[in-house]
Amino acid sequence: MIIFATSDKGGTGRSVTSSNLVYRQALQGKDACYLDFDFGSPTAGAIFDLSDVQAGSDGDGLHSYLAGAIPEPRRINVWAETQRESLRNRPAGVGRLTLVPSDRGRGEFPSTPGIVQRCVELLVRADEEYDVVLVDLSAGRSYATEIVLEATARPELADVEARWVVFHRWTRQHIVAAGSLVHGARGILDIGTAHGHKRAELAEKVRFVRTAVLDPAASDQAALRPEQLVWLDVCNMRLKDLAVTNKVGQVKLLGIIPLDPVLQWQEQLLTNDDVWLHRTANERTVNAFEDLAKKIVDVDAWEGL
Amino acid sequence: MQIKPRQQLLDIWRATARVSYRDGWVPGGLGGSNSISDAEQLLCIMAPATEIPLFRLDQPDTVTDDVLEALRPLGDNLQIPQRLLRALYDYLHRYTAADKITPIFSGGTYFSPEQGGDKVEQEQLDMDVVDSFSISVTLTLAIIGFTKVFRQVVTRAALLRQVEEVEQMANRRLTAAMAGLLRSFTVNVFTADSPFGQELVRTVNQERRATHVVVDELRLALREINARLRDDVTIGSGASEGSELDNPNRLFECGWSWGVVRDAPKIETSAEVGEQRDGVAQNAPYLYFTTVALDAIQALSSERTRLLGLLDPEQARLAQSLQLRFELTRSYWTTIATFGSGRWPLEDLPWRATDGIEFDYFSLLISGMVMQSMLAVRATNANLRRVADVLEELANRSRITRRSTEPETAVGVHFPGLHFPLEGSDALGGPGLQWTVADISPTLFKRTLNLASMTTDGPTRSRMLELSDSIWQHLSIRVIRHGDDHGLWDWAAGAYAYLPNGGSQVSWYYTKRVVDCLVNAANVINEPPLRSELLLQIAADLLNEADHLYDRELLSGIAIRGEALRVDLERVGAELKRARAVYRERPGVAVAVAEEVLRKLDRLAAARRADIG
Ligand SMILES: Nc1ncnc2c1ncn2[C@@H]1O[C@H](COP(=O)(O)OP(=O)(O)OP(=O)(O)O)[C@@H](O)[C@H]1O
Ligand SMILES: [Mg+2]
């Protein structure tokens, strides 16, 4: 299955959440692969703690491959090359965890038939080799998004399970922007239809994930005053209504990732050690990653109404 | 109120989902699976989902997190409505005859032989019963409301087909249930000196006056009801008796029998309701079934039914006929129960029915009808208080508010319940059957709470709220504590320690009634609080004084003398503004705020005096 991760705006938590998702999937025994298509700001290297690709690879990454400069992009075995001690002790029974980085210091580029063709080949191969392939697109309406929409409309990818996940924060502006990114003018559905997707079918393949959500009901919000909690509750209710009108309501919701103190300070993978040993990360966050990792590849969970 | 409807309903949902859903909806429970019990089980989920906005399940977009958590065994927000739909479909299917059209309203395992041990014939178990007509009305109205909203978010063709099929089956069942109710309505006419007549006269004649005077007065009081029964009741059962009513010396009673009345004519309808089977039930009203039928008919004419346009034209026509019988029955029993100028017959506990059976439970059922009439005519607080007295007395006598530590017959009404014979049930062969009711506590709770919200008299309201708290207390110690069905009802030994300790299997009959209590309580809590004129006056006066003192402080100019003081006074100003804004709706809040403001202002005044001294 290929999952295309996008977001309404920059800085929503798309890369961090996606990285944690593939990490969890590998832990759950699946072969997982992360393709960094965020050509403008490749950050996956930093999140996986890979010292030589902190801000992208050097001439042998995805950008160079798509541009036609090299026959194959570089693949990094995260378990082996990460600097993080707790990741290197790869537990038995886990799946492969591969990062295909982008290149440092490049920008976006418009699609050409050659690029789309290479993209198709890359995705077909990745889908054959891995159980889950996660493609981190960039935020908003981007060339990367257009390229993959074009690629997935091609017959070579017709039989591949392709899904779209839009990450957004739980605020008014993000809710409106997330709805618009999918349903608005020149949004995913518009562009997809223009490239030969069937609108209704494509719409069924899009789901939303809310990131860094403050849950007023959680016990660690005890520091909030009662008035603040009441207000948050009202706010939450209004946001829910707003989400429904913008078609990003619970019917299309795949998961909610709580606001986490560790992630607020640092872009990283949350290991079980962070929860149990260092006790810095919240168990709730890891559970949310874990659940989402299961749900996102569960075909039944994608069955709409 | 001690009762916390939201939390408690969620607890019940959690238990219901846990017990009922194991890879599919499993009907059953104490008393076995039948068309009534299975509907009661479904209504444990569907009733709150229909009646309370926060519990709606038909809009997967707005389901709240605590609801989702409670219904976890049923899946996530998308699976819950689909699996419920499946369960509803299975129910409608299970209770449809082999011709795939005729809905079945059989009493099944809720029937029992009058003489324990007699073997009940299958044909008897299959007999339609008014309880099933009534609960089917409630359930199908819930289903139709659910599908009408849910279908709007459905896009998958297969799912949409399923929604439509369920809606169609529910509509057919609803129409058939209404036809059934029209065929089980009964007018029992008798002469004043027949045994029925003597019982009726005894009941209404509280002042022990001459019989012929009382009969004349009673006929006079019932004249209008009499005329409408004769002229307006033209279809279904109860229509042919109309002409008899005008004969001299005739008395009557009306309401619902236990099933389709013997020789009841078929209802002519353009709708597809399947076969209308012949009835066998006695042509005389049963108080229990009358009450049950009235509740169902009330749901048919409820605001929700009208607003959502749940009825099709043919159903609306039948509903109108039922509404007429509803009003006549309600007025009839109110007239009887409050007849005379002294003590009401209702106040003479226990109520004695015309067949000579007497139960406190009957007094409770009659109180319910009297209250429904009082609601319609906006009764005086004095009259409501008299009903309140009756309810309190009933709670006492049935050992709900009074302790019972030694075995005593009064507890039989809770366990094993009251039995009454179903006359005519042996017409198809087999032994005479009886019906069992054990719902005095939840019914009393509902009536108490209704009365609390009807009265505008503070003390009566407090009394009724206190009483409902005690009844709730009683109900909550009867929840099953151990075994698979924990969290559901009924475990009577929880309240009466000497009762057999067994019976830890869920009774959907009872649990559904507890759910109704909670739904009722939620509705009452949602009403605005009763406003006290006295508090309103105090609030107004306090606010005037506070305003005045505040203006004086401002005039003194101290506000410009320091940041801290200015902020303080601004806060006082904001508080006063808040108090003004709410005082009409919530004078109590305004009083509290004004008092605090006055105290603050007085501190300033006191400090000023210290300066001079
Ligand atoms: N659950 C969370 N709780 C708190 N902070 C979070 C959470 N998820 C992500 N963040 C933080 O939000 C910031 C943005 O995250 P991230 O870089 O993943 O966003 P992005 O959508 O990939 O942004 P860009 O569009 O720039 O690539 C980071 O600092 C990250 O650590
Ligand atoms: Mg990123």
UniProtKB/TrEMBL annotation, chain A:
GO terms for cellular component: cytoplasmic side of plasma membrane; cytosol. One of its GO terms (molecular function) is ATP hydrolysis activity. InterPro entries: P-loop_NTPase, ParA/MinD_ATPase. Keywords: ATP-binding, DNA-binding, Nucleotide-binding. One of its GO terms (biological process) is negative regulation of cell division. Transmembrane segments: none annotated. PANTHER family: SEPTUM SITE-DETERMINING PROTEIN MIND HOMOLOG, CHLOROPLASTIC, SEPTUM SITE-DETERMINING PROTEIN MIND HOMOLOG, CHLOROPLASTIC-RELATED. This is DNA-binding protein. The lineage of its organism: Bacteria, Bacillati, Actinomycetota, Actinomycetes, Micromonosporales.
TrEMBL record, chain B:
InterPro entries: SCO2524-like. This is Uncharacterized protein. It comes from Paractinoplanes tereljensis.
